[in-house]
Design goal:
Structural class: mainly alpha
Largest sheet: none
Order of helices and strands: HHHHHHHHHHHH
Mean pLDDT: 86
Distance between the termini: 72 Å
Shape: elongated
Low-confidence stretches: none
Helix content: over 70%
Number of helices: 12
Length: 208
C-alpha cells in the first residue's frame, strides 16, 4: 500500500483516519490519527469523534490506559471537551488515581455548568465526582457535591449515601486495625456529620 512505501506521510495518515471514521472503525481511525501528527482544522471534528468513541469503548472494556490516552488526544483537539474530561476522570478512578479523577471531573462539571447542560448531565457528573471524592476520603466535599444529585435524583442520592457509609467504614476499620482508635472514631463522626442519612449507623459504630 501507499503507506508501506511512504510511512512518514502525515497527510496520508490523516486521510486514512478520516476514511476509518466514516467507515465506523474508531480504533483504526485513532491509530491513523495518532501517526498523523497535528490534525488539520478541517478534520478535527472527525478526529474528535473517533477519539471519543475509542476512549468510551476502552473505558467500558476497563482498558483504562487506552481510555486515558484517547481522552488526552480529545482534550488536545478541544480544550473544552466535556466528554474528554469525563471519560478521563472515570478512567482515573479505575486506576485509583483519585486526585486526577477529581480534577478532571471538576473540569467536566465546570464545562457543563458554563454550557448550561441539561439536568441529567449535571447530575451524572456530580454523582461521579462525589464517588471519586468518597474514594479519596474527601467526605465533606463529597457531601457538598452530592447536593446537586439529591435535588433531582433520589435514587442516585441514596446510592451515594450507601457508598459513603461503606467508604467511611473502610477508612475507620483501616485506622482501627492500625491501632489509631481516636482517629477511627473521628472518621466515623466526620462521616456522620457529612452524611446525615447514615449518621445513626455511623454514630452507633463510633460508640461501639
Amino acid at each position: 500500500s501507499y503507506l508501506q512505501t511512504h510511512p512518514s506521510d502525515p497527510q496520508a495518515y490523516t486521510l486514512l483516519g478520516v476514511a476509518n471514521t466514516f467507515g465506523g472503525d474508531p480504533a483504526a481511525a485513532r491509530a491513523a490519527f495518532d501517526k498523523a501528527g497535528p490534525i488539520p482544522d478541517q478534520y478535527k471534528t472527525l478526529a474528535q469523534q473517533s477519539y471519543e468513541k475509542y476512549a468510551q469503548s476502552s473505558l467500558e472494556a476497563k482498558k483504562y490506559s487506552d481510555a486515558i490516552g484517547a481522552a488526552n488526544h480529545l482534550i488536545d483537539l478541544n480544550a473544552q471537551s466535556l466528554q474528554g474530561y469525563y471519560i478521563r476522570g472515570q478512567a482515573a478512578i479505575g486506576t485509583l488515581n483519585y486526585a486526577a479523577a477529581i480534577a478532571d471531573l471538576q473540569k467536566a462539571r465546570a464545562i457543563a455548568t458554563a454550557a448550561k447542560s441539561d439536568d441529567r448531565t449535571i447530575v451524572t457528573l456530580a454523582f461521579t465526582l462525589a464517588i471519586a471524592q468518597l474514594d479519596a476520603g474527601q467526605f465533606g466535599e463529597a457531601a457538598t457535591t452530592a447536593r446537586d444529585v439529591s435535588r433531582s435524583d433520589t435514587a442516585r442520592s441514596a446510592q451515594i449515601d450507601k457508598f459513603a457509609y461503606a467508604a467511611v467504614m473502610d477508612a475507620a476499620i483501616t485506622l482501627a486495625n492500625a491501632g489509631k482508635i481516636p482517629e477511627s472514631v473521628g472518621r466515623l463522626e466526620s462521616g456522620a456529620a457529612a452524611f446525615p442519612n447514615e449518621a445513626a449507623a455511623l454514630t452507633a459504630e463510633a460508640a461501639y
